[in-house]
Design brief:
- The chain is an all-beta fold.
- It has three domains: 1-126, Neuraminidase; 132-180 and 188-221, no CATH class; 232-323, no CATH class.
- 0% of the residues lie in helices and 53% in strands.
- It is built from no helices and 27 strands.
- It starts with a strand and ends with a strand.
- 45% of the residues are buried.
């Protein structure tokens, strides 16, 4: 059971794996209710990939075939999203202005193509990738959208100058009003990807630390044109940032040789979330947080991890600040 997002109202969403297909769920902290989400009762299951503060849940249904994009509302509505790329697509995020983003991908054609649906009609449009000279367009993906319509994601690129190879790779990108911008990589790295953006336009994700092919990947913060390396937890080699709130708090994962640990980054320091559990909490010593996936404006954090009483299975957790 994995969580994918939490909003400012303490509503979390995610999916539970079954032997047939994933089953999407919604959890409301105010009532403790955990309920299933279904776009179409005839489908085998569904994905819930993110939730906006206005209560729009982006996801996909799972029919007898590839997933189809759609969304739910906390008040009970649901809608499939249609268009040229309806099959083999998922909605991944929504903002409070009625914009939903997602990705299309199908074997043998375009590997991935970012999609946008805008209220009220939800007509489908696509987003361009970065410069791709003498290459096949692939691996372009949208990950997050803020309330101003700024979309963060990643795109492959390949640059030639008068037939001579210059550079290629994958870079974090942002789109505004359909125009794409290359955010670059740490110290000239040819690989980076953006996973979240806040209302101020701050973007977080992961990037190789330099241009060498063996460089580790570190979590980054991109702010006002500059990309900053956030480092890792002590003893780890790699990290990645998954979410940032409007206060600048960042969450993600840091990994060593084997296990990963969920982190919170704030005021210039990265903290292991496993070390921040209230000593009086009954779950202390029983649970391990592997990855933090979302943080709300009030500091609530959605995390995936394990419980030693039920080893071998992923569990979803909601971390609520004590003050």
């Amino acid at each position: 059971m994995t969580v994918t997002g939490v909003n400012d109202q303490g509503i979390a969403v995610g999916q539970q794996e079954t032997t047939t297909a994933p089953r999407a769920w919604i959890y409301q902290q105010s009532s403790g209710a955990l309920n299933e989400l279904s776009l179409d009762p005839s489908q085998n299951g569904a994905y819930a990939n993110g939730i906006s503060n206005s209560g729009v849940i982006a996801g996909a249904g799972v029919p007898n075939g590839p997933p189809v994009p759609g969304f739910w509302t906390v008040t009970g509505g649901a809608m499939l999203l249609t268009g040229t790329y309806q099959s083999s697509a998922q909605a991944v995020a929504a903002n409070d202005s009625g914009t939903i983003i997602g990705n299309y991908g199908q074997s043998g054609t375009v590997t991935s193509l970012p999609l946008v649906w805008s209220a009220p009609g939800y007509a489908e449009t696509t987003l361009p990738g970065l410069e791709c000279d003498e290459c096949t367009r692939s691996d372009v993906a949208a990950s997050a959208v803020n309330d101003s319509g700024l979309i963060a994601g990643s795109s492959n690129y390949s640059i030639y100058d008068n037939g001579a190879y210059v550079s290629s790779g994958m870079h974090a990108t942002e789109w505004q009003s359909g125009a794409v911008t290359d955010l670059g990589g740490l110290q000239g790295a040819d690989y980076s990807a953006a996973y979240a953006v806040n209302s101020g336009g701050d973007v977080v994700g992961g990037s190789r630390t330099d241009a060498s092919s063996g460089a580790p990947t570190h979590a980054f913060l991109y702010r006002q044109g500059a990309m900053t390396d956030l480092g890792t937890l002590a003893g780890d080699a790699t990290s990645s940032a998954n979410s940032i709130n409007d206060s600048g708090q960042i969450v993600g994962l840091s990994q060593g040789d084997v296990a990963s640990r969920a982190f919170l980054y704030q005021s210039g320091q990265m903290y292991d979330l496993n070390a921040l559990i209230n000593p009086a909490d009954p779950l202390l010593g029983l649970v391990t947080f592997a990855e933090a996936v979302s943080i709300s404006a009030n500091g609530w954090i959605a995390v995936n991890g394990t419980d030693s009483r039920d080893p071998g299975w992923t569990r979803a957790f909601l971390l609520i600040p004590a003050s």
